[in-house]
Specification:
By secondary structure, this protein is α+β, with helices and mostly antiparallel strands. The protein has two domains: about 5-85 and about 115-160, Butyryl-CoA Dehydrogenase, subunit A, domain 3 (Up-down Bundle); about 170-285, Roll (Nuclear Transport Factor 2, Chain: A), CATH 3.10.450. Helices cover about 55% and strands about 15% of the residues. It contains twelve helices and six strands. It has helices at about 5-25, 30-45, 55-75, 95, 100-105, 105-115, 120-130, 135-140, 145-160, 170-185, 190-195, 220-230; strands at about 195-205, 215-220, 240-245, 250-255, 260-265, 275-280. It has a six-stranded mixed β-sheet with strand order 2-1-6-5-4-3. β5 and β6 (about 275-280) form a beta hairpin. The longest helix has 24 residues, at about 55-75. The radius of gyration is 20 Å and the shape is elongated. The relative contact order is 0.13.
Length: about 290
């Protein structure tokens, strides 16, 4: 009979995997933590000594809980105010050096994953990110292996058709982020126009909790003028930290210990100009311990 202490040790050994899996399935640090806690509660009711593969068992618990959570979340997001963006996730610098790992948690990838059904998303993440076999995924999702192969093919084609390609060089992205921040904070219209791609898109997620555009803004001139005009409204006492988030550089805006905005930029690979700006300002998405 396995003891409670042994069960705790087994779960903690897999916690990182489960947390990463849940985040990529949900796009929310907070929801991922809830799902992992739910998996722990279910795990605590079984005898680990009778489980042949704790990794497979815990993955199954977490995946099923996340898929159920995602189905409810997607219904709620239909009434979300303005664009919905994933919660930013702090990542270690070495993640940015691994292109595959950085891409799997990037804002661009998570936004594309939002266009999949919960089942497609689970199959894609388990297969493409965590390299689970079709048989393992079938067991985790209680589906037949041929059905999982079909879903995997459909999800992969869907993602590859919609996944944008951005510059991934860490130093280049960091330099562009610093230059953008200087121009945006200072309201420098000319400098903003110099760093933005002509077809840049600005997405802002305020969730109806703070003032933010409820539709994306397209084009360098409109985006630059909007940001330059907003510079005078930046709260006094704002401090800016450059951090690694979602596999690349991000700008965290704080007042004291409270984070009130996060900027994540994507660069066009050919020009190195900023092609996509994502601003997360919904306080509910910035309250988790990694950023708040």
């Amino acid at each position: 009979m396995t003891t409670g202490a042994d069960a705790d040790e087994v779960f903690e050994r897999h916690r990182g995997l489960l947390q990463s899996l849940a985040y990529q399935l949900l796009g929310s640090v907070t929801d991922a933590e809830d799902v992992v806690q739910e998996a722990w509660l279910r795990w605590s009711r079984v005898d680990p000594g009778e489980v042949t593969s704790p990794r497979a068992y815990l993955t199954r618990l977490t995946t099923r809980a996340a898929v159920d959570h995602l189905r409810h979340a997607q219904r709620r997001r239909q009434t979300y105010v303005g664009p919905w963006l994933p919660e930013p996730l702090l990542t270690a610098p070495d993640v940015a050096d691994d292109v595959t790992r950085a891409d799997s948690v990037s804002m661009a990838m998570l936004v594309v994953l939002e266009t999949l059904s919960p089942l497609e998303r689970a199959v894609f993440v388990l297969r493409e990110v965590f390299a689970f076999s079709h048989a393992e995924i079938a067991d985790a999702l209680d589906r037949s292996e041929p059905a999982i192969r079909q879903v995997a093919h459909r999800a992969r084609a869907h993602v590859h058709a919609r996944q944008p390609r951005y510059a991934t060089d860490r130093a280049v992205r960091r330099q562009a982020t610093e230059r953008f921040l200087s121009a945006a904070m200072g309201g420098d219209l000319a400098e903003l126009l110099a760093v933005l791609a002509p077809d840049v898109t600005f997405w802002a997620d305020g969730g109806g909790k703070v003032t933010a555009p409820r539709r994306p803004i397209y084009g360098a001139d409109k985006v630059a003028r909007f940001l330059a005009a907003r510079a005078s409204a930046i709260p006094a006492g704002t401090e800016v930290d450059l951090v690694e988030a979602n596999g690349g550089p991000a700008a965290v805006l704080r007042i004291g210990d409270v984070t009130y905005a996060v900027f994540i930029l994507d660069l066009a690979p050919a020009s190195g100009l900023i092609e996509t700006i994502r601003l997360i300002a919904n306080p509910d998405k910035l309250a988790h311990s990694a950023l708040g």
